[in-house]
Amino acid sequence: MTERTGHCLCGAVSFKLTAEPLATRICWCRDCQHLASNGTVNLLVPTEALAISGTLSDYIKIADSGNEITRQFCPSCGTHLFAKSSGRPQFRVVRVGNLDAPSSIQPHMNIWASSAPTWACLDVALERVEQQPLPPKPSPAQ
Q: What is the domain partition of the chain in residue ranges?
């Protein structure tokens, strides 16, 4: 495993990943479209594999599932960095664009594809999931 690092736009928040992603995907849900005016490229890691330095601001919203979704931002520059769900506390979502080496990640699926705008460029080589995919299965080592 190669450690990955990243930071927000202004550098006030930095982070380190100490595990390989459990999933990498492009999300087309309406919330991600509001955040990025497009789909967002995300990776999913075990919660304990994400080390954060700096102060975060939270925005909490109840999802259609009833789960509490917490999105975390840099309070200085507003960069959206992370998300977590009360329904899956063992995982953290990391926005790939904030990695120091974003090309070290290759998305494997488009999720919430049913919400993508008609002009969205969805790579047909990637798995297509119309809404929320099932959570990844834990590896035998976990």
A: 4-128
How many helices, marked H, and strands, marked E, lie in the chain? 1, 11
Q: Compute the distance between CA of residue 126 and CA of residue 142 in angstroms, rounded to an integer.
A: 27
Mean of pLDDT over the chain: 89
Q: What mean pLDDT do residues 95-122 have?
A: 89
Q: How far apart are CA 31 and CA 89, in angstroms?
A: 19
137 DSSP 8-state letter: P
CATH architecture of the domain with residue range 4-128: Beta Complex (2.170)
Comparing CA positions, the residue from 87, 118, 105 lying closest to residue 42 is 105
Within 10 A of 30 (CB to CB), how many other CB atoms are there?
A: 9
pLDDT band at 120 (very low <50, low <70, confident <90, very high): confident
